[in-house]
Specification:
By secondary structure, the chain is α+β, with helices and mostly antiparallel strands. The chain contains 2 helices and 4 strands, in the order ββααββ.
Length: 109
């Protein structure tokens, strides 16, 4: 399955548009990770634990998007957009959503 942020794939013709597909992942933040992230905010630097969690959430969202596209019979998803949000009472939840258009590409013969 080809998954791309572009609206076309160079050298390939789209023979059918199957519709919009999405995938979401929502993860709760851990209190200890939050504590260490707060310290990093004060002293500077990157929060590797948050980066790992966001990476996991992105992979989950893209896997769900791909699964839905496969169910529709697609062999590619174009125009993929990734969105990141935090929410909850103390912004303790993180959400990653992936949205794109499932398509069928003609074979390269």
């Amino acid at each position: 399955m080809i998954i791309t942020t572009t609206n076309n794939i160079e050298g390939r013709k789209i023979s059918k548009y199957l519709g919009i597909v999405t995938g979401e992942a929502i993860l709760g933040a851990n209190i200890f990770r939050d504590m260490f992230a707060a310290v990093r905010d004060i002293v500077g630097g990157r929060s590797a634990s948050y980066e790992r969690e966001l990476g996991k959430a992105r992979e989950i969202a893209l896997d769900e998007l791909e699964d839905w596209a496969e169910e529709l019979g697609a062999n590619a998803v174009i125009g993929v957009d990734l969105d990141y949000e935090s929410f909850g009472k103390t912004n303790g939840m993180m959400m990653v959503s992936a949205t794109g258009t499932a398509v069928i590409l003609e074979d390269n013969a």
